Amino acid sequence: MSASELELSIDGLAAGGDGVGRGPDGRVVFVPATVPGDRVRVQVVQEHRRYLRGRLREVLRAGGDRVEPRCPVFGSCGGCSWQHVAYPAQLRAKRALLCDALQRIGGLRVPEPLPMHASPRSYGYRSRARVHVHGGRVGFLRARSHELCPVSHCPVLEPALDALLEELSDRPSGDGIVQLAAGEDGRVACSAGSRKQALLVSNGEGSLESSAGVFVQGNPGLRGPLARAVVEAAGREGRCLELYAGIGFFTLSLAARFGHLVVVEASRRALRHLRANLSSAGIHHVQVRCEPVEGMLRKPGPSALQPDVIVLDPPRVGLPGGSAERLGGLGARRIVYVSCDPATLARDLRQLTALGYKLERVEGFDLFPQTAHVEAVATLSAGREAGKR
Question: Do 276 and 224 share a structural domain?
Fold first, then answer.
């Protein structure tokens, strides 16, 4: 075996999706396409003082959770990282990654139990996709690259959306990024061409208007459980402030529980859907603000909102710098934080708990099987200091 090759055992899965083992000198080695329990031969491709990155050369002994990927371009396409991992092992790994981030980054005690909600379908579940069109080819980006990986079918997409992907790949038009979406009535939409139509999605309590270019949770099988977890954590009493409201995925359910609700969303396109959804539901008591959350929190006197409960669903980067402190300064007795990145969630919770909040409950949701992504809902309650206005 050459000096650039190692033989090692894989012990776990990392947040980025790689398998993790240790080299002979004790340094951590990250290896894509490996599974805990694998014994592998690896070529070292990057060397750092504290860790190495390797490329899988050979599986000498397969771990018990290794399975055959369903996609012919798995390993080249950057969309999925865990098709070779049995689904129960994916769930265990995601729970471990969430706990590790809360403990290591957040310095937090993880509340027990920490449930991990499985997706009803581990393939054919995804109702939204962002595809690239370039030089007459359609596909996703290759792993850790800006290079296109051409595809005409994707096994994680809902069948109707997969059919739309095939149609687009047969007749690509122009270059750029195209958003694809499927509604829960079987209709599909595209952000380009003639299919720019509204779609209906469900939050478990009713249908909402959406479209291909606007964010909404992409796994229909977990939309209802996720929405119920959030509104149940929020409660029913007092004044509620919802940040990053989007099309109103949580808003309509919150409006049924709070007599005073202020929602904030910066995207005008999302707000058009939000207002249409509120109007369709006959809801008129919600105050809608079109502005960035960080801008709203920087304004003089935001504590005049006097929220008892804050619900927020920020993008993957989490709260902008300084926003956690301003948010904590509003004096809400409860904060419900929906996150799609355990690392930024843990960072923001660390700041909020430093202001006197206590982490009461965390739930995980596997909205993206076959990937290392994990969604979480964290509920915080105000301590004596945090509750002061």
Answer: yes
Residues 105, 53: one domain? no
CA distance 274 to 320: 23
pLDDT tens digit sequence for 316-333: 999 999 899 999 999 999
* Total number of domains in the chain: 3
CATH for 258: 3.40.50.150
Indicate whether 308 belongs to any domain: yes
Residues 309, 182 within the same domain:
no
Mean pLDDT by 10 residues, the chain (389 residues): 82 95 95 97 95 96 97 94 98 97 97 96 97 93 90 97 94 89 91 81 94 93 98 94 97 96 96 96 95 88 79 96 92 97 97 97 98 97 62
Q: Which domain holds residue 96?
A: 87-121+219-382
CA dihedral 65, 71, 77, 82 (to 10 degrees): -20
C-beta of residue 363 within 8 angstroms of C-beta of residue 229: yes
- In the chain, alpha helices (H): 87-104, 159-170, 220-234, 251-255, 268-280, 293-298, 323-328, 342-354
Tell me, yes or no, whether 70 lies in a domain. no
